[in-house]
Amino acid sequence: MTVSYTLKVANSRFGGFSKLLFRWKGSIYKLLYKEFIVFMVLYAVLSLVYRRLLTEEQKRLYTKVAQYCNRSTDLIPMSFVLGFYVTLIVNRWWAQYTSIPLPDQLMCVISSNVHGKDERGRILRRTLIRYANLSAVLILRSISTRVLKRFPTMDHMVEAGFMTQDERKNFESLHSDFNKYWIPCVWFTNLAAQARREGRIRDDVALRLLMDELNLYRAKCSMLFHYDWISIPLVYTQVVTIAVYSFFAFCLIGRQFLEPLEPGQEGDLDMYVPLSTLLQFFFYAGWLKVAEQIINPFGEDDDDFETNKLIDRNLQVSLLSVDDMYQNLPPAVKDKYWNESTAQPPYTMATASETLKPSFLGSTFDMCMCEDAEQSQMVEASPSVPCIQTPLLSRFFAAASPAISIKNFSRGSRAHSHVWRPQTDSGFPSPYPKRSEDPELVARIKEEETEDEASRASEPTTPGSHLGHTRLPEASETQRKELLLIQVKAPSSESIGADGPEAWEP
Question: By three-state DSSP, how is residue 37 classified?
Fold first, then answer.
């Protein structure tokens, strides 16, 4: 039976967890006391042999062996191996519980979509939900020792009312080498199709909804079967077990009291009961026993799943839902808050203090904004403002190539995309030192750039400008978008022939 202590830890108080240490059922003491006694007995036997039976020469040899064993315990990664293994086991344990099929969704769909208050309608609804419960019992009977002890044979299934004699004959007449938990699901689908033909299920949408819920229910049954079939790899369990057992085998020898090898040498404190070693055994061995207990939660341990209780609950609730509660509705009336705009349920005296707490409206709801009016003023983004390069892009552009400079990027409206001038002020030498520039072109470009700078300086700032920049003329804006950012002079055929191959060598 599952040990539940949720109510005991509902509120955090002094010594809250400490009170749980005195419980026996489902405790670590009940799980570990046999191994703990064996370890203490073996430790005591080795201690008596060392103190009473060994000679001085044998004690010296035993001391060297014990020191070696004590050093070897540091080489075994106990925390890592055990921690990862137990985490995997706990995740698998919870995933198996969430895979247990519950008929709650399916029974609601059956109750709302399979119609008829007559006997035929009742038979259809009860049979459909009984087939679903039968499939769950068959899969739980295959993986749970508790359920198998409750229903050891198919006769017990018939006697419990999960299947009839005719259904049992049909079930046993179908020969298969594999588990046949899926057969009741197929019966369900055929019976649902028959109910659709009879008009008990009004339309195909309702039938599709019923089939979808059944498929989810069957998928959980299949997942339980596969969890039982595919275990955690055996080698992993063996590695963890060998690591724990070898660690404490070294501890049995290496944690003994040892006399000094040299006369006059100060020895360790002689503690007849090794408290630190016993606590270490309690933690590590207890960790391993926890994994051993929950690796298969369908057994008969204290914290294993109560599968028989789940079967009883599922059958009772599902039959009640599809039969007694079918079209059995309380009258629909006006609720208590019909004429109130805001519904406020009452509080008792024990919970009245909760009404004094304000409702949570968001983490920034009480944030104090800046009192400066200029900081809260709305500003429209201006399309004429040039994009500011980020430092990362600036570094890439600055170090891309010696032939590329930031000053070569077009900023004005009269930039020439067909001319490139070697930059002497950017820190990069000209890649083509033997080439000559056209003096007329260079002078014209400098003149146009000077005119652009003068026109931008004389133009007044508009109110819609952003961050103090001036608005560019429309004509220059259009031209600026059409120009290339990197201006490189394309060599002509004449210049190539005149310069020769050696002129293009960097």
Answer: helix
- In sequence order, what are the beta bridge partners of 409? 486
Dihedral over Cα of 281, 286, 289, 295: its sign:
negative
pLDDT of residue 377: 78
Secondary structure of residue 486 in the 3-state scheme: strand
Question: Which backbone phi and psi does 409 adopt, to 5 degrees?
Answer: -75, 140
Residue found by looking up tokens 């679903």 in the block: 132
pLDDT in tens, 270-322: 778 888 899 999 999 999 999 999 999 999 998 899 999 999 999 999 999 99
Q: Which residues contact 53 (CB under 8 A, 6 or more apart)?
A: none
Let me know: does 420 contact 408? Beta carbons within 8 Å: yes
One-letter amino acid at 279 equals: L
Output the pLDDT for position 11.
86
Give the three-class secondary structure for 337: coil
DSSP-assigned states of every residue in 374-413? GGG---PPPTTSPPPPPHHHHHHHHTS-TT--GGGB--SS
Q: What are phi and psi of 39, to 5 degrees?
A: -65, -45
Please give the backbone phi and psi of residue 327, each rounded to the nearest 5 degrees, phi first: 55, 20
pLDDT value, residue 197: 96
Residue 69 to residues 105, 272, 416, Cα–Cα distance (Å): 59, 19, 83
- Locus of tokens 């060994």: 54
Check: CB of residue 416 under 8 Å from CB of residue 487.
Answer: yes
Give CA–CA dist 506/434, Å, rounded. Answer: 9
CA count, 13 A, side-chain hemisphere, 118: 2
**Average per-residue pLDDT for the chain:** 81
- Per-residue model confidence (pLDDT) at position 1: 61
CB 412 within 8 A of CB 480: yes
Full-model pTM = 0.70
Nearest to 57 by CA among 258, 261, 257: 261
Which residues in the chain come in under a pLDDT of 70?
1, 264-267, 381-439, 441-442, 456-506
